[in-house]
Amino acid sequence: MKIKQLLFKVLTVLLLLFVTSCSDIMLILLDTPETPTGFTVSKGTYSGYVKLSWDTTTDDVNVYRSATQYGVYTQIKSGISASSYIDNSVNTGSHYWYKVSTSSYSGDSESKLSTAVEGWSKVIAPPVISTYPDKSVYDADAVVEVTIDIANGQEMYYTTDGSDPLKSGIYATGDVTFYIKKTSTIKAYSYIGSDKSEVVTKELNFTQNSLTLNIQKAYFNSLNTNDLKIYINDNLVSTIYSYNISQYYSTTPFTIKYDGQLEKIRFVTGYYSNTFDNINEFASNSTATSLSDIKTIELYPFYNFFSDTYTGTGAYGNL
Q1: Which domains are delineated in the chain?
Q2: 75-132 pLDDT tens trace
Q3: Tell me, what DSSP letter sits at residue 21?
C-alpha cells in the first residue's frame, strides 16, 4: 500500500511538471515576435523628413538606419506602437537605408530585421549657372553672358556680388540672362513654397588692368572750387587739393596710378562732374587702332570746363 501511495505522489509531481512546462512552451510560442510586413519608406515626398510605414502589428516596432545599404544599422527608435514613424533627423539630399523589427510583449526577444528599404527627404533642384564663353579667366575687355536656369514652377533669388542670396538677392520667377564685365561671384538658390535648394556659386575671373593718369592741364569754370576729385569704379582714388589756378586753368601736372578692374572713371570739380563708362568715350581723339595701342588720350569733357592729357600703360580693356 505504501508503495502505491509513493508511486501516486511521484506521478502527480511528474504530471504537474509536465503541465507547467507546456504552459511555458505555449507562452513562449505566443510571445515570439514576427518581422513587420508591408514596410515602405517615402522617397523625396516630404520636406525635411522621411516617413516609414508598416502593417498594423500587436508588437512594438523598432527602427534601424544606415547611410549605406550594406552598412552598419543603428537603432534610432524603439517601442513604437503606431504603424508609422517620422524620421526628421535627416539631411536634405542625403539618402538613407532603413530596417524594422518587432519586440516581444515581455521585451525578452526581438524579431529578425526586415529587408532594407531606401528613403530620402524632398530635394529641390538647384539653379544652373552657365556662361558664354565659358573660361577660367577672361580678358580684361571681355563681356560675358551669364544665364541662370531654374526648373518649371520654381522661383529664385540670386546675387552677382558674392553676397548670400538667402538674405538678400534679386528675385526671378524664371530663367534670367545678364552680362558681366568684371571679376564677380554669382550665387543663386531656387525654391517652391518653403522648400529651398542648396545655394550654387559661379566665379568669373578677369585679368587685371593697369592705368597711369598723367594730368597735364585742367581748365575750370569760375564757379568751381579749387580741388579736383578722381573716382575709379565709384571709389575715390585721389583728391588734388589747393589746385593752383591762374586765370581758371592750371598747368601743374600730377600722376594717378591704379591697378585693378577698370569699369568707370569720374572727375568732379566744384559744381561739375563728368563720368565715362567706356574708354572709347574719351579715346575718340586718339590715333590708336585698338584699345591696347592707346598711349595718349586727349579728353575734352562736357562743357569743356577742363582738359586733360592721359598717358596709359598696360591693357585697358573696357572701362
Answers
A1: 40-120 (2.60.40.10), 128-204 (2.60.40), 209-311 (2.60.40)
A2: 999 999 999 999 999 987 789 999 999 998 766 789 999 999 999 988 888 999 999 9
A3: H
